[in-house]
Amino acid sequence: MQADINSIQPYGTTTYDGLQALFTRRWASSLFGAAYTWSKTINFADNDQGPRIQYLPEKQRNRGLASYDREHNLQMYGVYDLPFVKGQRMAREGWANAVFGGFQISGVMSIMSGLPIYVIQGSAPNLLAGGSAQVPNQLNPTIRILEGVGTVAQRGSSSGVWFDNRVLGVNCTSNCAWAPETGARFGSVGRNTLRGPGFFETDLSVYRTFNFSESVKLQLRAEALNATNHANFANPQSDINNATFGFITSTYGPNQSRQWRFGMRLSF
């Protein structure tokens, strides 16, 4: 009796190059800052996932941007203590303290490049290369990013395709043994050559603390997650065999719509 033996072993390398910058500024008890990263991560497969093209003579077809690569990543944050009046002494005395004292405003803003898109051909023979899957052919050296969102059914007569899906063609639908002399071969599309929509989110919070004594404090909290109610769209359908190929049909992110949170904390 014979059976296949699967081997899991290192496959290619991962490289990361990046530039990182950090800015911070303190102003009395307030704090502001920004962190920016410009980077590129290239690999053959993500984490413990196997490469799509496992046929070793064609190993280089898997080399491309990591699926988690974000070229630009900007994070800005701030914590600001009120009041608006000048001088801490004024803030602690009289009406200024009663009206403005104890407030704190903070926020975090995230702006990131979109994630890479790996255009694939889901239903196709293995080309007699066990474990390998197929990708389509690229019919034009340039694939335009059109930035449309939603399918024709969702948008009416206008097309919401994210990238120009007309310059990609199905490859190897029949008689697909690995035999270059017959024209059967892997598709020409590279791995993760396109990029999806970027990501933007702002979270804001307002706190007010009432000091009843040195040891007893009451804090009221109000937080808005995704305060601008900005929709972050997921990558488009990347399987050329799918009816919605090239269309974005969903959103993603920890807070896909604005969320409010209110709280109260008593410390003593």
Structure commentary:
The longest helix has 7 residues, at 94-100. The protein has helices at residues 88-92, 94-100, 152-155; strands at residues 15-27, 30-43, 64-65, 72-81, 103-112, 116-117, 137-138, 168-169, 194-195, 199-211, 217-225, 259-267. Helix content is 6%, strand content 33%. The chain is elongated, with a radius of gyration of 27 Å. It has 3 helices and 12 strands; from the N terminus they run ββββααβββαβββββ. With 268 residues, the chain is mostly beta strands.
What's the assembly state of these chains?
single chain
Question: Span from first to last CA?
Answer: 74 Å
Unreliable stretches, pLDDT < 50, 5 or more residues?
none
- Count of the separate structural domains: 1
**What composes the largest sheet?**
8 strands, antiparallel
User: Helical region count?
Assistant: 3
Question: How are the secondary structure elements laid out?
Answer:
Blueprint: E1 15-27, E2 30-43, E3 64-65, E4 72-81, H1 88-92, H2 94-100, E5 103-112, E6 116-117, E7 137-138, H3 152-155, E8 168-169, E9 194-195, E10 199-211, E11 217-225, E12 259-267
Antiparallel strand pairs: 1-2, 2-3, 2-4, 4-5, 5-10, 6-9, 7-8, 10-11, 11-12
Task: Fill in the keyword field for this structure.
12 strands, 33% strand, 268 residues, 3 helices, two-stranded antiparallel ribbon, 8-stranded antiparallel beta sheet, mainly beta, single chain
